[in-house]
Amino acid sequence: MQRKFWAGLLFLSLVLNSFIFSGPPLSAATSFPDTSSHWAKDYIQQLSSSNYLSGYPDGTFKPDRDMSKAEFITVLTLCLGVEASDKTTVNYKDTGKHWALGRINEAVKRGILIPAEDPDGLRPDESIKRSQAAAMLVRALGKPADNGTLPFNDRATVEKSMYRGYIKTAYDLGLISGFPDGNFEPFRNMTRAQVCTVMSKFLAARGISTPVTPPSSSVTGNINTLALGERLFNLQTTPIYIKINFTDLRISSIVAAGSSVLINGNQKLELESTSDNPDLIINNNRYAIRRYSLSGNKLVAYPGCRKFNRISPGTYTYNSDYIKLYINSVNSERYLSDLEIVDEYTVKLGEKNYNLSQDKVTIQLDKDFYDIKRVIMGDSDTSPQLSKTDPVVFEGLSMSDILAIFTGTSTLNLQSSNRIDFIIDGKRYTMSQVKLDAKGNFTVNSKNYPSTNVIMIIDGTQYKINHIDINNSKFIFYCDAGSTHEWVIINNEYHNPDDVRILWDGGVYELNEVITVKRNILRIKGRQYDLDSSFKVRFDNKVYDIDRIDYDASLQATVIETGKTSTGYLASQPQKFVFFKGSRKLQEGANNVTIYVNYTWVDFNQILIVDPSRLTYKNSNYDLIGSRIKIDRIEYKIVDSSWHGLNQVLDLYLEET
Hints:
The structure is a single chain. This protein has 6 domains: about 40-130 and about 190-205, no CATH class; about 220-305, no CATH class; about 310-390, no CATH class; about 395-480, no CATH class; about 485-565, no CATH class; about 575-655, no CATH class. It contains 7 helices and 52 strands. Helix 2 (about 70-80) crosses helix 3, helix 2 (about 70-80) packs parallel to helix 4 and helix 2 (about 70-80) packs parallel to helix 7. About 30% of the residues are buried. Mean pLDDT is about 85; it is low at about 1-30 and about 210-220.
């Protein structure tokens, strides 16, 4: 199937269905007679005034009418700002003559719709389900599904949906929320008003919308009492705070204002919200709040869990927001305030529970480290029972922090070693720039790396780390004897040579096919060439001009400095290939894939993609669709392709020959 390769942002399309999306654009001042008192009127106004959708010919909007899949897809692609350019391809057996065919094809092209998920047809005129909407919104943003624990009371029902991971991501992104009773109801139809609400949030996620202020009712009044569970607290006699970012705001007054309350006259607190609610602090007990609501003259807080607020293990008091937290001696960017208290001996971090009598849960106070052995929970205070322990994180390392370095069965002489560096995720770091935890993990730029992914360079010699032990707060490194690793250094970053290609004269060459004779002089196929503008380098799926190329014998590395990104040399390449046989995914990535082109089998990485239907090899173009490929020695034919522009993934659909 031929599809046009697209890039960039296209113009907004207004060629829409004659009922739902017809008529002249509505101005920002236009309102619908049936939405003036509707809860979603501001969201409807925003979407309609921006011409993403309009009302019916009779001037009404019908906000509580269900929206169809086709209508939802149309609004979503309009919010992406793209045109429906392909109005002939038929991806579903029931969309060939549908008014929204172009929009449906655009959604397929962008990976928002996946035809393999609906082998019996799209059913475009059926109502859009909440689960389906969540999946489309997340895919449109190029975000992955999250199969973590679902935060809904009806999680058993949500688990039955094929889109459960997308529901979790959509919820976490704030695109679509649950109902006040804590349920999500994945198979419930969405109304036009509800779609306006989620589309407004979708536009906000893309950074192109104006925030909408939810409507308020006319109820107002002063509140003097806060209810937490069955306990009542008077604002005048009990110190009560809400957590605004990292600030504790003492509550002195609460005034009701419809769907929200004002704290101290200027801090707005939304009612009935099931996300992003500020923590509540009463005395020295801190609570995560699932929902705030009003009941008579009381502000009711529904607690989700208890947390640590401030702790005073000695003469000093520490704020939990700034106390580093470590689980089982592994470094992380977590803090004591992230820890949820389940009971006296159980705490929770993220989705996992930890038993304080079995797991090592450690905090850092200044330069000292303490294990939490128990949680002491009182009416006015929550505090940890602490036991001092050995350090679990070390930073600002020096040679004196290393006890020994083993290479095979030999030990390096540390007295004669002058410098130790580490190559981590393609970059070189000195000892003082890394952190090491007691489990042997490295941390740079707030990200952890296991020691097996790190190369140690000692006075210019490379060693692959197998594992790290710690003895009396000093490290013992175990490395391969005489290990080497070939690199290509591009703009001071280390890359695997297998991921880098030299482009020249219509050919694609691996680095072992290009010999750097000396600075800016290359040998290819036995002939020598001076570096000029015809040479390009491809890495990270982009093509760059080469400003300088050399070989560093001490590092055993080709060194390349690049200039600007090349825009005229097939610069935009897929970041990933995904191969499908029918609806079954065969593999991700082009490893062990060959393609038959120009009467020979070549590595798939030797070709360049012109568009989803064509490729180029040695300066000649060929059809991608219909090409023969082999994956693990099994031969297939490429019968279709699908380009996902937001995340630059090309899906290839195969038939076994």
